[in-house]
Fold this protein.
Amino acid sequence: MTATALKDTLGPLWPYLVVIVIGFLPTDLWRILAVWAAKDLKTESDILLWVRLVATTLLAAVVAKIVLAPTGALQIIPLWHRVSALAIAIAVLLLFRRSVVAAVLTGAAVVILSGWQVS
Amino acid sequence: MTTPDLPVTDAGWFRKGLSDGVGVPALLLMATMLGIGGLVRDIGFPAWAGTLSTLLIWAGPAQVILFGAVAAGAALAPTAFAIALSSARFLPMTVSILPLVRTPGQSLVRRLLAAHFVSMTTWVEGLRRLPGVPEAHRWAYFMGYAVTINVAGMLATHAGYYLYALVPKALAAAFLFTTPLFFSAAMVSAARHSWDWAALGFGFFVTPLVTPYLPPGVDFLLIGVVGGSIAFFIAKRRAGRGEGAP
């Protein structure tokens, strides 16, 4: 079934239903499973360290994917500009006492400059 | 050196969480959510459906997949499946934060509430901030912090619905880029040990090499489990050699 088909059957409430059934349930399923999985875990355990490292790798992978294959307005920024913006931001972070704010502002400035050039 | 007056009750820590939530991470999240509000308008959904999605789904990538699929007229069951795959990261993320906010005899409702409010922002900030909070009040503090971040996100989604079309393209691109910038910067800044760097490096550098060959969604899971396990073995080997237990 597609969204259009659902719209015809449900009327004005269908966007909310789509958000709940197609978005909320498949996402919170994992958070609910986690409540059960974390039940007996100790804060200093090996399993917890492994799980945290898996999560860290996953988030880094999500970031890499956003830089490589972005959605929406980011697509106007050329790939190597996106990669440079991130690399410059990390360089600023490591040079300036791990200031996350300075890093983000620098990276965003690079993207704005690039966006002005191409648009 | 003077020590600031710290709260002593759950209510006090909840309020401290609320006020600590006001800050740079909230602003950066708002920049992303403005874009999602714009997306909601583009596909002809009402503004409140976008706001509701930030409250209930509370995951930028899943919201983008959902509204993008509706825009493309995609079938709903495969979309739900794609969202489930992209949100699987919440299993390790939530599992690693729940033991930190656990209190003796904690009710299931409290655990479910904390789990629901785990997002990239609250995870990164929670892991950084919670060790400094007395164990008995961590749940209250985390909930306060998460409520501020989530409400900021809902306001931005709603505002984005009306404002995003007016934002110049270059600025809109920069708004969307704050997400990868913030998470890379926050994670690099939090990295202390060689195994933290191994996990980050694997995620950043192996992903571009392998994603073209793996089914979308499954790629993240595989990268996460393989990279996380390699980092874990590095941690165990170093600990075994007495280089400081993780």
About this structure: Chain A touches chain B through 81 residues (CB under 8 Å). The helical segments of chain A are 3-10, 14-37, 46-68, 79-95, 100-118.
